[in-house]
Specification:
The structure is a single chain. By secondary structure, the protein is mostly helical. Helix content is 75%, strand content 0%. The protein is built from 3 helices and no strands. α1 crosses α3 and α2 crosses α3. It is elongated.
Length: 84
């Protein structure tokens, strides 16, 4: 079931055409959060990614995990309602 949910999430991202307004807003929020906390993520090691890219990747990972959890919760709720 998890792989099917991930596939559904990937399909949803493809429909959004990769770079949506929501992604841009998330990137701005990440930058604001880092600046507000006087923090930075300085990672340019083996993979050559910049800090902002890493923070954005972490946020996307959290978004995907949230999608999976929300989907499972909605499915359980649907099944409960169907029982009644």
């Amino acid at each position: 079931m998890d792989s099917m949910i991930r596939k559904l999430y990937s399909m949803e991202l493809e429909e959004q055409d990769g770079s949506s307004r929501q992604d841009e807003e998330m990137l701005l929020e990440i930058k604001h959060l880092l600046e507000k906390n006087k923090a930075s993520i300085c990672v340019e090691a083996v993979n050559g990614r910049k800090g902002d890219d890493l923070a954005f990747a972490l946020a996307e990972l959290g978004e995907e995990i949230g999608f999976e959890k929300g989907f499972k919760c909605a499915f359980r709720l649907f099944m409960e309602c169907k029982k009644e």
